[in-house]
Every structure is written in structure tokens, then in C-alpha cells.
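User: quick one, fold this
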Amino acid sequence: MMAPDFHNDDYHALARVVHAIQFGDKEYAKIKLSHLLESHLSPDKDVDPLQPYLFATALTRRYVSHLPGDAKPPLRQYDEWQVDLFDVLTNIFPLVSLSRRIANELLFRFMKGRHHIVMVDIGIGNGHQELDLFKLLSQQGNMPKRLTIIGIEPAREKLHQAERLLSLLGPKYGTELSFIPVQKCVEELTPREWSEISNVEGDVIVNEVFSLNHIRPTIDGIDQKSKVLYHVRDLNPVGFVLAEPNSDHESACLSTRFRNAWNHFGLKFLVIDQLNIHEDVKKAIKIKFFGREIDDILSDSEPIRCERHERAEMWMRRLLDAGFRPKYGPLPVLSGDGTVSASWKDSYIGLDFEGETLVALISVMGS
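Assistant:
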């Protein structure tokens, strides 16, 4: 199994397109993109290989209004897969399942021995990470007497799912459990709402998995990522655990984003290729989930794009600037799944494939 090739014809053709776009030569970009899209359409209208096709269509949508022959991606047959694919991603795709498991191990180390805990979960989703965390706390005999979970999540239905799930966990595990839903993106919280969170009684622990990377700067250029981290620091948490993709897609430079995305998603596609699932499901995951991220990174305009991943070192710099300190030891026992490995770096845990870190988990203290 080889890492994404920066020397193949597809990559260099797309790199030339990016260069042309940056220098305003849209006619050249249009011709090259048309050739690329046509060359990756087989007679049965399938797409092979998929990665250059997704990158070419993303660049087309943003920078070329019309292609000769009106080429369009023949991928709509995968639209109905989305709900089922979410379960595949969270339970089978190791970069997600391992991230949640290790994040819970790190959260456990902050929660151990504490009786009254306030857990702020940024991007709580449907609450299934909490379900696994409860199992871990119970297995280790460290269930707190009182646990308040503040779930910050913009999707109403996901919040309802989380509330229904968590309502069953308190009685099952013998803890006084309260759930406070906050239907907002975290960057939309007002100073008053942050103050209300800080006034909830208990030791504050904050969790986020694949959420903060979606925060955009404001129209007038305010860095909302760092602003949110300062608000989190003001909660005076005993611990803060983050899990984020490890690649620089924050850069305003299109060529930088293109090269980083080609490497990052190429490696993710190789991980998907090793999963023991049907080939159609593998292709659907690439198109419906990661294809949309590629599209956002390359085709959405700078003010509105929201897949703004950063490298672990960039996140750590933000955290240190906000007043957090790295948390060292006791360390969880790390193991991969046979495809992805987990290892300790200088200040974070990396989920690695082919020698590169694709996801970084960072554990810091605020007090």
C-alpha cells in the first residue's frame, strides 16, 4: 500500500489547473478540467480513479462556470446512502471510531475521582460518545455521583436523539444525570450564554471531536476559533480534550490547500480501501462524506468555506495562547486496529497511516 503519489499525471495536471486559476487563466483551466473529467469516465459511466475526479469537479464548480460538453459527475446514485453511511463511519472507519475511544480514555483521566462533573460537549451529535464514556466509567468503578452534560449542537434532531439516549443512562448507571441542550454552533454563543455555562456547579471538563474545524472567521476577519478557545478557557476547565483532522486546509492559498488535501484525502481513501465492506459502500463514503469536504475546501469561496482543518501544532499554538497547558500522563494504553496506528507525539496523540498523522488528539488543562 502506497501513500498518495505527487508524481503522477493526474496530480500534476490538477496542479497546473490550480496554478492557472491563481493567475487568472480560466480558459486553460476549463480545457484541462474538461479533459480530466472526460478521461476518468468509463463507458459504463462509473468513475475511476475517484480521487482526481472529485478534485477536478470541485475545482470546476468554483472556478469554471461551464465546461465543453457540459460534463457533470455521474454520482447521484449514491444520494440515498447517507444515513447508513454515518453508522459505517462512526463504528467501522478507524479514524473516527479510534478517535472517540481514545478521546474517552483522555476524558476519563480528567473525570476519575471527581464526584460532581459538568461536561461541555461541543458538537455532541446524537450522544453516542457519551454512551461509550458511561460504559468506561462504569467498568472502572468511577461513575460520578452527579453529572451535568451541556450538549452544544446546531442540529435539532441530533440534540433530541442525544436527550433521549442520555435520559436512559442516569438510572442505568446510578448517577444523577442532567442534560442541558444548546441548539447553536459554539461560535454563536453569546457572552451571557458562556456565563450561564460557567455558573453550572461542578468540575468542568470540555470535549470536542471534529467540530471546531468548521468555525469560520467573521466577515470582518475576527478569528472565531481562538475566540471560542478563550471562552472555553474562561470556564476554568480541569480538562479539555480535542480531536481534529491533522492537515492545513485553513490556508487562504489555494495551491497549499490543494496539495494538503490531495495528500490527506488520498491517505483516507487508502484507509477506506482496506475496510472489509462492499466496494459500493467504500465509493459512497468517499463521495458522500469526504467528497463534500474536498468540494468545500477547493470550491467554496474564502468567506463561506467551513472545512478549515489545521495541523496539531497549529491547534496547540492556539491553546497555549488561550492559556491552556498540555496534559501529560498517566497515559492511556494506545493501540490501533491493524490499519491505523496510535502513537504519542510531543504534545498530542496521532492516529497514523503510512507514516503520516491523519487525526490528532490533544489533551490540555485549564487550571
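User: anything notable?
Assistant: The chain has a mean pLDDT of 87.
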